[in-house]
Amino acid sequence: MKEELHITASSLVPNELYEIFLRLNHFMGTFMSRGVFCADDLGEIDVSTMAPLRGTYSGVRPMGLFEGLLPCEDFRYGNYCKCTPPNPFKFDVELRDCTGKVLCSVPIIKRWIHPAVVRREIEEDGLCGTLFKPPGDGPFPTILDMSGAGGGINEHKGATLSSEGFCVFSLAFFQYKTLISDLNDLDLDYFRKAIHWLIALPFTRKEIGIQGVSFGGLLVNMLAVRHPEIIAVCSINGGHVISEYARIKENGKILPYTDTPTNMLYYLNQTMCYDKTVKYMVVTEEADMKVETAPKRTAFRYVSFQKILASRYTARRLSHVASRVIMHRRCGTAQQTGGGCRRQVFHGTNASLDDLSTPTVFVTRLHEKKLKESGHYVEVDFAPGGHLMEPPYFPGHQVVYAKIAGCIQAYGGEPCLHGAGQNKIWPNTVAFFKRFLGEPQPLEDYREMSEAPRSHL
């Protein structure tokens, strides 16, 4: 689940170099990370106390190998690493000597959902999604979780939250099963129906939290203004206004929207960067969502990935070849390709490219100012990284194919820093929901249960 691993190696040749190589064997392709370490005088390596001499991360990071995963050649460029249903991720950790010979290999299973959590696919009264219910009768602190404009459904955030004891409804809203296929056909009434359905369940509470990322991060603010049942809002890298490319409706009528300044679009290595376009949208009085008009008891949390330094070096990392790792399976070695990126140590000065899809620091400060002036509780969490914030140890994505735009879109973020940012942000989000929704009953450690529960996947 969320626990840290303690990775050590012993009985090695003292003061010799060894590589620890991590491979994620995902059904969509392979991800990898690596670190080269020098064994100490006793012939031992302890990843929790030693920094790699080179590799896909730098500094002493006990889970640095899991935070800095990179896509390999067999993972299609622009794809998103799916985790629906939230099946376990299968890793291999290898110890290699300086010639690349594999000395030891250990398989690791990473779960996204506690085996006792019940996963139920929902297709009722026009609603589509997945409900995650912890064991017991409840009532449980309840969260509505949604993704962005990529369509479909992503369940891993809901599964991870439910493993903390929350009842979570991961809601799809277009391009999934019987739902609409065009985002312009989306009506806010759909979410009203979902909220009322969720709070009517016998094991949920009548006041809920809501979480959304990207376009979903925009929607959660709009819904908080309209629904007093929502008392805790977590917006992850969301926008601040509806644009002409997503003219959503309410009660069948198109809501006011703003024009998109397409002249502010720019490209890095043929990937579209949308952040400046959003920043310079002119928000009219009619199009303003007026987040400050939400009920005073509604608490807000904004998660944003901020820029430390965007140099030409970091910009080059968005190129196709620079973000790829060629796996030479026959000889068991790996190398990065790309003239500008042969250095594999990520230094602090070459940090995150920031979110290249949404100007989230700008948007967050905008919302924060309004909500503080209106007397709302609002908390802000900044971390270096790209557009998508996932649970800890989920691979980062520097680029993703944007179906709504029909091109590859830049999300930004250095993989190792993005992964470390996720590790920092996620526990704070869990603490936020616990504070305002109530402390859920902790789930028993399934590894210590007398009878291992059967998975409900």
Automatic annotation (TrEMBL):
Pfam families cross-referenced by the UniProt entry: BAAT_C, Bile_Hydr_Trans
Residues forming the catalytic site: 214 (charge relay system), 355 (charge relay system), 387 (charge relay system)
InterPro entries linked: AB_hydrolase_fold, Acyl-CoA_thioEstase_long-chain, BAAT_C, Thio_Ohase/aa_AcTrfase, Thio_Ohase/BAAT_N
Stretches assigned to the BAAT/Acyl-CoA thioester hydrolase C-terminal domain: 187-304, 352-438
GO biological-process terms attached to the record: acyl-CoA metabolic process; fatty acid metabolic process
Domain Acyl-CoA thioester hydrolase/bile acid-CoA amino acid N-acetyltransferase: 3-124
GO molecular function: fatty acyl-CoA hydrolase activity
PANTHER family given in the database record: ACYL-COENZYME A THIOESTERASE 1-LIKE (PTHR10824:SF4), ACYL-COENZYME A THIOESTERASE-RELATED (PTHR10824)
Family according to the record: Belongs to the C/M/P thioester hydrolase family.
Protein name (database record): BAAT/acyl-CoA thioester hydrolase protein
